[in-house]
Design goal:
This protein is of the alpha+beta class. The protein has helices spanning 4-11, 13-30, and strands at residues 67-72, 78-82, 91-95, 98-99, 114-115, 118-121, 124-127, 130-132, 138-143, 151-156, 162-167, 173-178.
Length: 206
């Protein structure tokens, strides 16, 4: 192979300069040697806002404090869970800047005397052809949802001061009690069965 033309170009600075300019023009006009630019991500439409307790307690509406978890449903409802809310609302439902509380978008009536066909009558609850007499002093009732669906929830404000959960599918029977017997002011003991191996060793004397 005759390498004379290549040597001639290499040794001729003018020809080398012209060759570099020629390649640069080809690159700019055709884009043949330009790196591929990635497409820009589509812009997202979003808004940010400050969330705070702006309801002031009117109409029994307030924003929970210490919200630990939240899920947003397809229709825009925000369901929240609070490990501690000063006013006692452990779960909340919000939508369009308003407090909903239940699935019907109604305010939660916390002193309902009737629910699910059952009604408080003195110290008994009657309804659907059934009578409940072991409910203490019932002051409010509700029908359960979720894992308590179909259960009758009773607030017993008598000596027990507990929330009673009744299975009313047959003969009404208490299947769960929530809270300490006697209420929050009662004396009660919780026994923890801890293996000896989990106890801290004694510190050496001195």
């Amino acid at each position: 192979m005759n390498l004379y033309p290549l040597k001639l170009i290499k040794n001729n600075k003018k020809i080398m300069a012209l060759l570099i300019v020629f390649l640069f023009v080809i690159n700019v006009t055709t884009g043949a040697l330009l790196p591929v630019q990635p497409a820009k991500a589509a812009a997202l439409n979003f808004t940010t806002s400050w969330i705070g307790n702006t309801y002031g307690g009117a109409d029994e509406k307030w924003l929970q404090n210490y919200i630990d978890a939240m899920v947003v449903e397809a229709d825009g409802k925000c369901r929240t869970k609070s490990g501690w809310d000063e006013a006692g609302r452990t779960h909340g439902v919000y939508k369009d800047g308003d407090v909903l509380v239940n699935l019907d978008n109604d305010k939660w009536d916390i002193d309902s005397k009737s629910a699910g066909g059952y009604t408080i009558s003195g110290n008994t609850i009657t309804g659907n052809g059934k009578t409940i007499t072991d409910c203490g002093t019932p002051t409010a009732i509700a029908m359960g949802r979720g894992s308590y669906s179909g259960k009758l929830i009773v607030a017993d404000n008598g000596a027990r001061k507990q929330i009673l959960v009744y299975d009313v599918s047959g003969t009404p029977a208490i299947v769960e009690r929530v809270g300490a017997n006697g209420g929050i002011a009662s004396n009660f003991t919780i026994n923890y069965d801890l293996p000896a191996a989990t106890n801290a060793p004694a510190y050496p004397a001195g």
